[in-house]
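Homework help board

Subject: predicted structure for assignment chain

Our instructor gave us this sequence and asked us to write out the predicted structure in token form, then describe one feature. I got the tokens but I'm not sure how to describe them. Can anyone check?
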Amino acid sequence: MIDCDRHRGSKEKCRLDKIKILIADDHAVVREGTRQILEQEPDLDVVAEAGDGEEAVRLAGNFKPDVAIIDIDMPKLDGIEATKQIKALYPTIIVLILSAYDDDQFVFRLLEAGAAGYLLKSIRGRELIDAVRAVCAGESVLHPTIARKVLNRLIAVSDKPKEQKPSEVLSDREREVLRLAARGISNQDIANELYLSLRTVQAHFSHIFNKLQVGSRTEAVVRALKEGWITLDDIPLDDMP
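My token output:
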């Protein structure tokens, strides 16, 4: 069973129970197909389906899923606005975008809204399953090309006045872990780099998520970049995958 750093209610780590999933897409056949793919796995449980953005926000509150898989193009509320509202109301729900669009504008707006990952509907079922498990384990599910674009964009706007110093929010070790995470490397590689166990790295991410009130590694890195806590000196682009 996957060891996932999820934060529901008491914000304790969840290791043994199933990953609860909400699917939001205005096409019933897409929802049904996605459900069938996910529920073949014993550790994944689709607890609700939404056909529009408003319903997605409502069901997120009713079912408190660990992961909400959301499409961009939906009636009533689009995926961007639905993501904003879900993250504002239930910040520890992880939002994973599954979309037919790969335009930069959608990627940036959704990540700024709080999405943890962005996948295209052309991916295989196994890739979706792996992505759900990865975001629950605190891993990044951004393609390196997208991660590089996001890095450039956010660092460009990170020179605003800082409300808090990073040392006022995170410990030295937590900042070190987050700087390595911004390079897009896996939790295991971070553990190897810092001579720590994988469980210790996962524990650091859990503390980071709690302190920043986010639900995923992507959100934590985006916050650090926007606040200027991470700079190009910390993550030279040549080091990114």
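Reply (TA_rk): Your tokens look well-formed. For the description, you could write something like this. The chain is about 45% helix and 15% strand. That's the kind of observation they're looking for.
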